[in-house]
């Protein structure tokens, strides 16, 4: 496909009767040294000539693309998409754009994506890493751009982190259900060990409950019927009251409705809870007590931290860790 | 945040004892004119110096960022996220990266995003537009890059389109349920008129059924309880067998489980169907007959068309319209 021969900065300057420097300042949103009237003339000329600034050339000058790279674990989870919605809500108001990279819960792919983030001119990176392995992450991140880590906690992170209180939230919920007599727990999770969030939630539950069954479900491929059967048989085998505890919303959404319609969840001997990232889970289980996270707020907060980093060279006031608590409701 | 003084191409050339031209060819993946051994020397030098190629400078040379912009309607819908998963599955294998822009079902935002796509160096654009208004879209798209339109059909589109058979799929499903005696239909949809897909599905249903109630649900904010009540009262007021027809998966996921657990959906006098984009809907309604779309395949197909456009200057063999049919299952 051939590129159109398009107008250049000189043409815009000529038509709007200003210097190229003025056009350049206009393109870089530096309107301090020109009148509104001049700015309007330049804008009209750009529209008239259908001029598209060459971002490559522009970036050489401004070193700014006004784009923030957002690398998330898996856009099949509402957590990741709501996180991005929250980030965008803040970026929008500041003239920045969030662009989303999806790791698809694949470590190889995360490395590939970070390569391309490193080699492109993004102004910042908001990163929900798959791993908490600092050495691995340090290897992935080569660029000296502002970075905010979100959701997955990293030991000794040199970057600000926005996380939730996974251990406490899971422990407190478990304590509450235990006082209601739920002693047997069936945990629904993806592979627990790869994500700090799941490890902490699992440990929070284990710190209270002794009779715990765990079903780890593959995000890539799993047989819904088989998992359903496995849950049912675990319910039946137990002579204690059973709590089904989804430490990932997706499994709450996928398995609880079926168990409800089949009558296994009577909220007497068997009930369900889990971490919930959206109103959808609430809508499907109106009666259930759920641990509500706020990924939208977590996203908005990490975008605010990013803005502070971008606007403040030595970033004094930036908190190293921001905790957005999840609550049982 | 200050940028580290980083190595440049000259340093890499010196350390690897090759010409700058060779380093440049290496960076542009043009390995035809160097030995494996040379390529390895350059790679080692890049790693040793922790050299990050300046993409801006590089893009001046290669005019390629190896990034494809993907602008979708709303990542809260599995349709949009599965679409992107399908696109990425193809791009990955070709060394391209898909970057996701979320319109958040907001026309103003779509225009803002397209501005930034226009001014950045993307190699191509895969676009799920909110509107089917060609004049509006022509205004948004300024860059002469390869473009593929997906999901929302545009009249007289100058760009290849990958769509589904919305009218036929909805009509055929409605015919099938009518023969089973379902004469009263409650349509659950977002605002119908803004999206060609919904218009076509609505018309497909209307072409068969006469007794049709429509509930348009706001994607931005709606009261779940009120909508639930509205559906129930429409079920009760009808003396004919009622079909609840969700022409958007999100409303199927949000409202059908509640109606099932409250016993309104008995699959005798009241049943539910809808367009489904994922296995999740199937998992929640194992017994329901759903119209299965294949957004993953639609994404993969649009990425394949994009690759053809990128690899073939006059793009002869490219189909102007590719239809991925949805089927009642």
TrEMBL record, chains A, B:
Domain of life (superkingdom): Bacteria
PROSITE patterns assigned: HTH_LACI_1 (PS00356), HTH_LACI_2 (PS50932)
Pfam families the UniProt entry points to: LacI, Peripla_BP_4
Coiled-coil segments: none
InterPro entries linked: HTH_LacI (IPR000843), Lambda_DNA-bd_dom_sf (IPR010982), Peripla_BP_I (IPR028082), SBP_2_dom (IPR025997)
Keywords recorded for this protein, A-Z: DNA-binding, Transcription, Transcription regulation
Gene3D superfamilies from the UniProt entry: 3.40.50.2300, lambda repressor-like DNA-binding domains
GO function term, MF aspect, one: DNA-binding transcription factor activity
Record lineage: Bacteria, Bacillati, Bacillota, Bacilli, Lactobacillales
Residues covered by the HTH lacI-type domain: 7-62
Name this protein carries in UniProt: Transcriptional regulator
